[in-house]
Amino acid sequence: MTLNVSCSKRQNIIKGATTLFLEQGFNAVSMDKIAQAAPVSKATLYKYFASKSDLLAAVINELCAVLLQTIDDVSVESESVEDNLKKIAAGFVDLIFAEEALAIYRLVISECHAFPELGLSVYNSGPQAALELLERYLEKIDQHERVNIPDTAFAADAFFSLLKGDLHFQCLLGTKSAPSAIQKTEHINKVVGFYMQGFLYAH
Fold first, then answer.
1. Is the pTM of this model over 0.90?
2. H-helix or E-strand containing 124?
3. Three-class DSSP category at 59
4. Closest CA to 7 of 36, 35, 48
5. Phi, psi at residue 63, to the nearest 5°?
6. CB atoms within 10 A of CB 129
7. Does the domain formed by 52-200 have CATH 1.10.357.10?
8. Within 10 Å of residue 49's Cβ, how many Cβ atoms?
9. Which run of H or E residues covers position 34?
């Protein structure tokens, strides 16, 4: 029961902070406001998060949780590389084009110049973790001699970059709406097909 209560309090804090950050921005939100929105005492809030930067990092990590779990779960032995990459791609595309994720991305970009530690904290909590997990998967399939990958770090970065493309930047700017489910599937199939030929099997 204690564990469930603790998890519930932490989730309520993250949920309340997410709402406030998106409505008011990072700088305008105080830890007092977050405690009231959760609602929890300030002592409880600081028990889980030492600062607003830590809390925003937790918000990013929460958004990335499904993607990180998907990458961590893919099997090297039992499923095709192409199917695994499509699963990872689907999780990544769903994440980066989600309205809440786009809004958080805009928030971080607008605030990180005033709070230099914020950018690094956010990067470590989501994007870097995803890159490291994908690189680890690519290393495993390379070791199993299922593909040929001279530079797994570059290959991991290239995969996510191809999936983002120009459309993600346009969505951030608000010049285009997020892709539909059909458009996402078409995009994923094109990227994975291109990636398989250009990166994984090139000698």
1. no
2. helix 116-125
3. helix
4. 48
5. -65, -35
6. 19
7. yes
8. 20
9. helix 31-37
Contact between 98 and 126 (Cβ < 8 Å)? no
Residue 201 predicted with pLDDT over 70: no
Of all residues in the chain, what percent carry a pLDDT higher than 90? 45
Sketch the domain layout of the chain as residue ranges.
1-50, 52-200
Q: Which fold has domain 1-50?
A: Arc Repressor Mutant, subunit A (1.10.10)
Structure tokens at 60: 């990013």
The answer for residues whose C-beta is within 8 angstroms of residue 46's C-beta and 6 or more apart is 31
- How far is it, in rounded angstroms, from Cα 126 to Cα 116? 17
Beta strands, E only, 41-112: none
Task: Give the number of other Cβ atoms within 10 Å of residue 50's Cβ.
Answer: 11
pLDDT per residue as tens digits for the range 30-80: 999 999 998 999 999 999 999 888 888 888 888 888 788 888 887 766 678
Contact 64, 57 (CB under 8 A): no
